[in-house]
Structures are given as structure tokens and as C-alpha cells.
UniProtKB/TrEMBL annotation:
Gene3D superfamilies: Homeodomain-like. The lineage of its organism: Eukaryota, Metazoa, Chordata, Craniata, Vertebrata. It comes from the Eukaryota. This is Uncharacterized protein.
Length: 82
């Protein structure tokens, strides 16, 4: 662990590196409705985690970042169109 300026220890988060197969599965689930963290998507996230052999929290973060990325791209395209 690393110590920050305030003297508290910080736990470094490691980035997940997905295999090509995991990326394909994650994308398939995302395109088929795994697009938020609601109760409706809980089962999809769980199934995806089991199929990809990734931790539930990693798949959940993939969903969050995918939604943010797609929203940013839509805004970028709207700005470019005007």
C-alpha cells in the first residue's frame, strides 16, 4: 500500500485487462441490455461475470464506463453536427 499526503494508506486499484473473448462477451451483454446498475440488470451482470470469469464488480464497472463513454460520444457528435 501507498501512503498519501494526509498520512492515510491508499490501496491502489489495479486495472483489468480483458481478453478478446471477454471483450466480445461484455460487448454482447451490453448491446443486449446490460446498460445500467438497476435491479433489472443485476442478473445480466451476474451472468456476464460468470461467463467471462470476471469479478461482479469488474463487470459492473465495465457497464458504468461504457454508459459514460457512449454518452460522451453522443454529445460529441451532437456538437459536431451543429
Amino acid at each position: 500500500m501507498e501512503t498519501g499526503k494526509d498520512g492515510y494508506e491508499r490501496k491502489m486499484n489495479l486495472r483489468s485487462v480483458f481478453t478478446a473473448e471477454q471483450q466480445r462477451i461484455l460487448q454482447r451483454y451490453y448491446e443486449n441490455g446490460m446498460t445500467n446498475q438497476s435491479k433489472n440488470c443485476f442478473q445480466l451482470i451476474l451472468q456476464c461475470a460468470q461467463e467471462t470469469k470476471l469479478d461482479f464488480s469488474v463487470v459492473r464497472l465495465f457497464v458504468v464506463f461504457s454508459v459514460v463513454r457512449d454518452g460522451a460520444l453522443k454529445c460529441f457528435h451532437l456538437v459536431q453536427a451543429t
